[in-house]
TrEMBL record:
The keyword Transmembrane helix does not apply. Keywords: Hydrolase. This is NUDIX domain-containing protein. It comes from the Bacteria. Residues 29-176 form the Nudix hydrolase domain. PANTHER family: ISOPENTENYL-DIPHOSPHATE DELTA-ISOMERASE, NUDIX HYDROLASE DOMAIN-CONTAINING PROTEIN. SUPFAM superfamilies: Nudix. It comes from Robiginitalea aurantiaca. Coiled coil: none annotated.
Length: 182
């Protein structure tokens, strides 16, 4: 589904314009997205395997939930919507801890230039893995992974073919935040 997203400038400020996500990717315009990392009290992290039909990084393991912020939507509204759409649960705004905003610029096959300002959140997974209902158009599989294993596998991108290649500063900040969570 192609939705309208806001176009931002290279400093992360809205320009007041919007376009379909496909055009934003084709033209390499900056735009906002959300990422949500779910963790458990047993030091596990929820990972999603991206559907094989995705335009970007098909079949790779990634953040628990991610998506574009629709035009006119706040990051919080996008988080709540994306979590329900992708894994079938509802969470509350007070359950989320804002971790930071990151810039990501990635070129993909097919002429996609994805320039995102990613709003990243952490939250505890309060239901069993079996209670999640992955949207097959978005998510091929869900898995709980130990924080230690995730750190070993993404640190320095030791397993490049398995995970979405987020930047080292991004993974470093996420791993640090997950390790030091309350």
């Amino acid at each position: 589904m192609d939705e309208y997203v806001e176009i931002w400038d290279k400093t992360g400020k809205p320009t007041g314009d919007k376009a379909f996500k496909s055009e934003v990717h084709r033209r390499g315009w900056f735009h906002p997205t959300v990422h949500v990392w779910f963790y458990t009290r047993q030091n596990q992290v929820l990972l999603q395997k991206r559907a094989d039909t995705k335009d970007t990084f098909p079949g790779l393991w990634d953040v628990s939930v991610a998506g574009h912020i629709h035009a006119g939507e706040t990051p919080m509204e996008a988080v709540l919507r994306e979590v329900e759409e992708e894994i079938g649960i509802r969470i509350l705004p007070e359950d989320l801890n804002f971790m930071g905003r990151f810039l990501s610029e990635q070129a993909h096959p097919g002429g996609i230039l994805d320039r995102e300002f990613q709003y990243v959140y952490l939250t505890e997974l309060k239901v069993p893995l079996q209670a999640l209902k992955a949207d097959p158009k978005e998510v091929a599989a869900l898995e709980l992974c130990s924080l230690l294993r995730l750190a070993e596998e993404v640190w320095g991108m030791a397993d490049v073919g398995k995970y979405v290649p987020h930047s080292k500063p991004y993974y470093s900040a996420v791993l640090k935040a997950l390790k030091s969570r309350p």
